[in-house]
Design brief:
- It is a single chain.
- This protein is α/β, with parallel strands linked by helices.
- It folds into 2 domains: 2-107 and 278-285, ATPase, nucleotide binding domain (Nucleotidyltransferase, domain 5), CATH 3.30.420; 121-272, 2-Layer Sandwich (Nucleotidyltransferase, domain 5), CATH 3.30.420.
- The protein has helices at residues 37-51, 88-96, 105-116, 176-179, 181-192, 198-202, 208-232, 252-258, 279-285; strands at residues 2-8, 12-18, 24-31, 58-64, 67-68, 75-76, 101-104, 124-130, 134-140, 143-145, 236-240, 270-272.
- A 5-stranded mixed β-sheet has the order 3-2-1-4-7.
- The longest helix is centred in the last third of the chain and has 25 residues, at 208-232.
- The radius of gyration is 19 Å and the shape is globular.
Length: 288
């Protein structure tokens, strides 16, 4: 049976068709409609139709921001807020005329990196997304662990600083409000009075202002991931998302994490992803 995966991202939606040996048959990327739920459903449906035009024997997996509530069947905890409260699984199945599997983007990322990427040789894998938001997924012996209520791995909404930065989820002090891309840009503005993109900030952080910003980033990164290791003690951590390209996370960042873990021995591998921004779409295909 062929495997079709769809990755619904904030800016792009990608679909991929794999054969039985996980070889790529075809793939396509299009722009994600902004804040328009109906157009998102239509876009995914059209991609599925286009990639499977001459194929009938295929399964479908979809990677989406947020998770499906076991109680309501609706999307919850999504930073693509037009999805919240929508029955995207049911709506897609009605539109496409076929059953689908659906998981959040961090779970799909973790699945792909555990089965095909940087963590293929490890048992318990914690997959980290650090980009516009902060998320995580847990894979145990190549099987996704979603948890009792589909929130396993959501380290981005652990409280890092009590009464800290306000998060879109309604709480204060979430990890996401300190080490996501937008949060880091906001912190630079707070410290300097000037806005720069994250790329611009990282291009020159050797001055005094840059050093303070970097120290704060590493401190928050260290505590956030150390908390995960203390609870989960994974065999490996894989970092994905736009911030995964920051080289010092694997050197100074790793040291900051290790310094804060509750153990006399800390050797958890902290790995850069191998599948890049295609991990989500591969992970979606692997759900079925």
């Amino acid at each position: 049976m062929y495997k079709l995966g769809v990755d619904l991202g904030g800016t792009k939606t990608e679909a991929i068709l794999l054969d039985e040996n996980l070889n790529v048959i075809t793939r396509k990327r299009v722009q994600t409609p902004k804040n328009d739920y109906e157009q998102i459903v239509n876009t995914i449906s059209l991609l599925v139709s286009e990639l499977t035009e001459n194929i009938s024997n295929f399964s479908i997996g979809v990677c989406t921001p947020g998770a499906i509530s076991n109680q309501t069947g609706f999307i919850k905890n999504s930073n693509t807020q037009c999805l919240i409260g929508k029955s995207i699984k049911k709506d897609l199945e009605n539109k496409i005329g076929k059953k689908i599997s659906i998981e959040n983007d961090a779970n799909c990322f973790a699945m792909a990196e555990a089965k095909m990427g940087a963590a293929i040789d490890y048992g318990l894998v914690f997959g980290v997304i650090m980009g516009t938001g902060v998320g995580g997924g847990i894979v145990i012996d190549k099987k996704l662990h979603s948890g009792r209520t589909n929130i396993a791995g959501e380290w981005g909404h652990h409280i890092l600083h009590r009464n800290g930065n306000l998060c879109y989820c309604g709480k204060n002090g979430c990890v996401e409000t300190y080490i996501s891309g937008p949060a880091l840009e906001k912190e630079w503005t707070n410290q300097t009075g000037k806005f720069l993109s994250l790329i611009q900030i990282l291009s020159d952080i050797d001055n005094e202002t840059g050093k303070k910003w970097k120290e704060d980033f590493l401190e928050n990164f260290g505590y956030a991931l150390a908390n995960v290791i203390d609870i989960l003690d994974p065999d490996a951590i894989v970092i994905g998302g736009g911030l995964s390209n920051i080289d010092f996370l694997y050197t100074e960042g790793k040291k900051s994490v290790y310094d804060k873990v509750f153990s006399d021995l800390v050797d958890t591998p902290i790995l850069k992803n191998k599948l890049g921004d295609s991990a989500g779409v591969y992970g979606a295909a692997l759900l079925t």
